């Protein structure tokens, strides 16, 4: 059975090597554009099946295949006892395939095919253990919520074709400069609605935390390199469009800043290991949208890449902890795991420091740049929101580390005997640990490469002010870490805090899922039930059944004429002759 995982991992690794070769090729010779065939030709609609490998798509290809290769290798050990091992790897590989189609396509139709493929595969993987009601529910929630958002994206694509007459990136981006500003803004908003669904931006965010019902390697892939980054990629890819509609861009940035703080606040009190990391993903996606919305597309892409490394490392480490704890996710039932899981503890601590944005780890360079962009644009409210978000991120990151790996060994009460993951699983995680440390130092090389395609973003802040901004961001992050360590060395917050209004508000996700249930799900369920019982059953089914009964009754009566008696046959022959003669005489 393991041979399936090995073959899948080798094939994904081959894709990774090919992506690195293409990266070198693009750096040396420039972008590659290949049209394989005419895919759709209907009237005036012509859509070729083509791929473009430019500075943006090749960075995405390298990021996706690198993280996916590590996740595949990790999954061999993580899923080795699962009865559906082969099915898991088929879904996982299809997920990566869909994402590669999405990022490599040279037109919006190809992008949309990959977009829908990623959505389908996420449904299959989130609901992988479909026999569990919670997993099945989470898969359907993710699928339906993304279909709602995709309606907006489809509207944007229809408007693009109606206006430009083509779906090719080159044709569309060449036309945006002469397009009506209101129409362009409408297209930009519709496309962003699609991005909101894929990247789980408010109010289409609730599926992301519930997606934790899938196997942990799926969480690493969805939240690091594939599904949730697709929305950010779409905005970056359409940068030439969004640059011309700054009001829409600012709206995107404002929503991103809100989500950055909104998601971080929910992570502060959550006790579910994977959900805490999921909320951190949601928060970091907000940072990416701030950068993209304000026109700093290369910085958004840089944070997307660095985030992929340390976030996938966090999730894979969480998978090790889950295995050791027999699938227990409540971090308050853990504690003191450092003694028996040193390698995992170190790797997750490295990832947490990177997430907190501490120098010299990767998260510092990309996150700090985004705060500088907000300040540079004079969007001080956005900068302040991101600044607060940085402090909250540092706190909940080390709250997790302290409650899982240090303090009292709560797991002893449950008779558990944890141990670290298999050596090859730890070795598979090491490249991510290294990249979480050093990837930030690639900033200037990265900027020089991707700004050959993306617009250069210049930050005009006095050196003294810039130094103060960096010091302030570092200071609040360090304070968040120190506060978490201090509080959870002393046993955490008093139990009475859990009864406070604020705590309940955060732990219940601001009651948004409850509001959705009360004011959207229940009314629509009632409407659907009414349509089923009163319209479908009483009208549609009744009409169909009535037609069937009439046909059946007519047939039954007609059968009586076919008695099989010779005298009856002669009688009907005579009747037939009389009818024919009458027709001949009167016609």
Automatic annotation (TrEMBL):
TM spans (from-to): 7-26, 56-76, 88-105, 111-130, 151-169, 181-197, 218-236, 248-269, 276-298, 304-322, 343-362, 382-404, 424-442, 467-488, 569-586
Span of domain NADH-Ubiquinone oxidoreductase (complex I) chain 5 N-terminal: 39-89
Main location (coarse class): membrane
Annotated keywords: Membrane, Oxidoreductase, Transmembrane, Transmembrane helix
Domain NADH:quinone oxidoreductase/Mrp antiporter transmembrane residue range list: 105-393
Name of the molecule in the record: NADH-quinone oxidoreductase subunit L
Any Gene Ontology CC annotation: endomembrane system
Source organism per UniProt: Sulfurospirillum diekertiae
Subcellular location: Endomembrane system; Membrane
Primary enzyme class: oxidoreductase
EC number annotated for this UniProt entry: 1.6.5.11
